[in-house]
Amino acid sequence: HTQQRLIREAQEKVKAIAGTVLRAERKKVDRGPLWQNILFSWIYKMSFRYVPKLDKNFWVDDKCNSCGICLKVCPAENIEMIDDKPAWLHRCEQCLACIQWCPQEAIQYGEKTVRYPRYHHPEVILEDMREQAKANKV
């Protein structure tokens, strides 16, 4: 299945990179094709300043049970609970952890996410996300 193959390939690549780091080896950085670097660098530079405010398109439907998991997994501390519902503070990093980890699938972005299932890496658990978000706050 494609998803499992991609995860396996990524794990192999991370393992190879970790070995390189542990051995303190120097290697050429894999930068991909020049045209891609130019195009994506330009897109990044043009859009970067708008990213934090893209959270204006997040909303919560009536399935929200005020569990606060979205608040706990947000690495940017961009969510606060107002009247027991998440509210975004316009410093979003667009990681989408709030959407993917909401157990009720109550957080939406725009009009399309209502129709899509949520996803997170099968080997990552909620506690991992909470610990990572806490580590970012230090």
Would you mind describing this structure in some detail?
There is one protein chain. The chain is mainly α. The chain has 5 helices and 4 strands, in the order ααβαββαβα. The strands form 2 sheets. A two-stranded antiparallel ribbon has the order 1-4. A two-stranded antiparallel ribbon has the order 2-3. Strand 2 and strand 3 form a beta hairpin. The chain is globular and about 55 Å long. The protein starts with a helix and ends with a helix. The mean pLDDT is 91.
Topology, element by element:
Layout: H1 2-22, H2 34-47, E1 58-60, H3 69-73, E2 79-82, E3 85-88, H4 97-101, E4 107-109, H5 126-137
Antiparallel strand pairs: 1-4, 2-3
Question: Key terms for this structure?
Answer:
138 residues; mainly alpha; two-stranded antiparallel sheet; 5 helices; globular
- Structural class, please? mainly alpha
- What is the rounded distance between the termini? 39 Å
User: Biggest β-sheet: count, sense, barrel?
Assistant: 2 strands, antiparallel
Note the run of SSEs as H and E.
Answer: HHEHEEHEH
Average pLDDT score: 91
* Count of DSSP-assigned helices: 5
Low-pLDDT sequence parts: none
DSSP, total strands: 4
Overall geometry: globular
**Strands of the largest sheet, in order across it?**
1-4
Radius of gyration: 18 Å
Q: Specify the helix fraction band.
A: 40-55%
Per DSSP, what share of the residues sits in E-state strands of 2 or more residues?
A: 5-15%
